[in-house]
Amino acid sequence: MIRHLVHDYIDGAWWDQQLAMAPNRVPYARAWYLNLVCPGWGILLDESRGYFMPVPEKHTLGIRRILQPPYCQQLGIFGQQIPDSFVCDEFLSHCSLRVIQLHIALNASNQLSERTKGLYYRPDNILLLDKPYSELSSDFDENTHRNIRKARKAGLEITKGSELGSLLQLKWKTRPSGMQEKLLQLAGKIMHQALERNEGEIWYAFAPDKEPLAGCFFLKDDLRSVYLISASSPKGKETGAMFLLVSRFIETYAGTGRILDFEGSTVPGIARFFKGFGAATVDYPLVSRCLFGWLTYGQK
Questions:
Q1: Cα separation of 150 and 256, whole Å?
Q2: Considering the domain boundaries, does residue 246 fall inside one?
Q3: Could you tell me where the beta strands, DSSP code E, fall in the chain?
Q4: Are residues 76 and 208 in the same domain?
Q5: Distance CA 95, CA 100 (A)
Q6: What is the strand order of the sheet 63-67 is part of?
Q7: Which H or E run includes 13?
Q8: pLDDT one-digit tens code per residue, 117-142
Q9: What was the pLDDT predicted at 294?
């Protein structure tokens, strides 16, 4: 039987132990991470079969909604075995998910019936770092190779560090239209805690005069590194800084079997950047439902 537990009844240590045994685990589902991006999260739990699902609950003016948190591409249903479509449909049909507004992203291993109300898909881009760098780089496209050469010619230096300020400043200066300061503050909290827990890395591309031109924070667990928070200055874009940074990251972890998860994008230029490194496209399901047609969340 599937039951719903509110946040006060969740033992974070127990949750992380269960998650660690799930072959489809993702870094976003760790307890500390959910505590940051969705402080009131609950769970759906099927103890008899060993399946569980974080529920990103949010209460506003007494109204309960379930909304995918920021900086959290995929959650969904986990277990010691990959849940089949029957299990996934059972979880999504649970009465606790019948709310005024629901918008959740499951993980790529969660298969849903095409009859699922409000179901659609978005692309992720992943690169398996299971080969030597020479083989991985042979799959880079010509535009990627050209930008890497440009960055090397400009004398850019790639370093791995622990200083947050430069990346946050770059992110704010180059922020997309509509980005709120509270999202930048949340990004800082995520990076700070992840670095303290050794569950994240910050990489920078510096000009010869030590000016930071690009930076990227990778959230990680034992399976994958997620290209989570990134920014490039205009000069960084001109010199191909991010291309060299990602190439160096791939070179560092080549042959380890680690997954580099770019998170994907529906923006053509960003998607081309990810695919230029040879990343494969994997779709993951989202479910978006609302009791009122005029109340929407995000864009499909």
A1: 28
A2: yes
A3: 3-5, 42-46, 51-55, 57-60, 63-67, 78-79, 101-105, 119-129, 157-161, 200-206, 212-220, 224-232, 258-261, 280-290
A4: no
A5: 12
A6: 57-60, 63-67, 101-105, 280-290, 119-129, 258-261, 224-232, 212-220, 200-206, 157-161
A7: helix 12-20
A8: 899 999 999 999 999 999 999 999 99
A9: 44
Distance CA 78, CA 82 (A): 7
Please state, in angstroms and rounded to a whole number, the distance separating the CA atoms of residues 177 and 296: 20
- Would you mind telling me the total number of residues written for the chain in this entry? 300
pTM of the model: 0.93
User: What is the phi/psi pair of residue 145, to 5°?
Assistant: -60, -40
157 and 101 in one domain?
A: no
Three-class SS of residue 67?
strand
**Same-domain status, 38 and 182:** no
Q: Quick one: DSSP state of residue 96?
A: G
> Number of folded domains in the chain?
2
Domain boundary among 46, 81, 116: 116
The answer to whether position 292 is within a domain reads no
Q: Are residues 71 and 183 in the same domain?
A: no
CB-count burial class (<10 Å; 0-12, 13-18, 19+) for 82: middle
- In terms of residue numbers, what domain contains 81? 3-116
